[in-house]
Design brief:
The protein has 354 residues and is mainly α. The chain has one domain. It contains 16 helices and no strands. Helix 1 crosses helix 3 and helix 6 runs parallel beside helix 10. About 1% of the residues have low confidence.
């Protein structure tokens, strides 16, 4: 137990150690050049954690490992629950049926496609395939973190998924403004999108929340409607992670029971933190908590998520990546192509119907 009398001191030291790293990641993410790239503290945190894991890991007391593990598991679940303070059901309603359907279709198709490609076509382990798919399908690194406890995946698998999210999410952040200003804005017919449609497209297909915010900001003289649509659709995708994880838990339980035989005693896997996440979002929809306090909660929550990502990186050794080859890149690249091209087509079709 992490806080048993014999482990308590080491656990606290490990948590404090992770918090110091997370504070450094938060500071770096706030620097203007880094902020311009749209890199969140979460991403900086995992990079710093991986650097530690492969350089200084053996220089610190082994007793601290319980604190690092606690940060990557327990603090993670707590942070995911309070992520619900970023969303209200009113925001989802504002974007209309179009935004909801684009979010639902892109999330489900991307997750299924990525899992199938990674596992069946490119030969990755099923856990790594699902984690990589969840990051592309929902909300980047935060989605990978939320999916990891359901799968009970190892740290290095989660790190692989996060690295793919960072790579292709960053490419998206630079690609989409160029596509809009050079083709979409001036095109006629099917290739043309209004500012609102482009916002829905951005929110429904780009990986990280920070990257979604950065795209409209990178479009010269972009209408407010573009940014609002993008963020609201993105947050709709974020809240969909809860039902996705519940369905995933039910599926994993079904598969385990099927493989174990009729008499197998299989525990139903329900990610309760995802259920609580919906509850917090529902509570936030009543606006009972002042916005200033919600803002503080979100800042603290971002720091806790950064701690979880940093702890995740600290458990990642490059030696564990051997044998994977380019399979994660191929899987993430195929999902990226689907998000860019398939997402464009889906958005146009949905918006033309409604």
């Amino acid at each position: 137990m992490a806080f048993s009398p014999q482990n308590r001191a080491g656990t606290m030291s490990g948590i404090i150690f992770v918090a110091i790293f997370a504070a450094g990641a938060t500071f770096i993410a706030g620097l203007a050049p880094v902020k311009a790239l749209g890199l969140s503290p979460l991403v900086i945190g995992i990079v710093m954690g991986i650097f530690y894991a492969n350089t200084l890991h053996n220089k610190l007391p082994s007793e601290w490992e319980t604190g690092i593990t606690f940060s990557g598991k327990k603090i993670l679940r707590f942070a995911i629950v309070f992520y619900g303070f970023r969303i209200t059901f009113q925001q989802i309603a504002e974007v209309g049926v179009e935004g909801f359907l684009v979010s639902l279709i892109m999330l489900s198709t991307t997750f299924i496609l990525g899992t199938w490609l990674g596992y069946k076509v490119f030969g990755m382990e099923k856990d790594t395939s699902m984690l990589t798919a969840s990051g592309a399908a929902v909300c980047g690194a935060a989605a990978v973190l939320a999916t990891e406890p359901v799968l009970k995946a190892e740290e290095h698998k989660t790190a692989i998924a996060v690295s793919m999210v960072v790579l292709f999410g960053t490419i998206s952040m630079f690609l989409y403004p160029v596509l809009y200003t050079t083709i979409i804005e001036h095109a006629t017919g099917f290739l043309h999108m209004t500012a609102r449609e482009f916002g829905i497209y951005v929110g429904g297909t780009i990986h990280e929340v920070a990257q979604v915010v950065a795209v409209p900001a990178s479009v010269p003289n972009s209408p407010v409607e573009m940014a609002n649509s993008a963020v609201i659709v993105k947050m709709t995708r974020v809240i969909m992670i809860a039902p996705m994880l519940i369905v995933l838990g039910l599926y994993l339980s079904y598969v385990a029971k099927k493989e174990g035989g009729e008499g197998a005693d299989v525990k139903l896997v329900i990610p309760w933190f995802a259920v609580y996440f919906i509850g917090v979002a529902g509570f936030n929809s009543f606006h009972l908590v002042p916005e200033t306090i919600v803002s503080v909660i979100n800042q603290i929550d971002t720091f806790l998520l950064t701690m979880a990502m940093t702890a995740l990186g600290m458990g990642t050794r490059f030696a564990k990546f051997k044998g994977l080859g380019l399979a994660p890149v191929y899987t993430a690249l195929t999902m990226f192509i689907w998000l860019v091209i398939g997402g464009f087509i889906i958005t146009k079709l949905i918006c033309s119907i409604f």
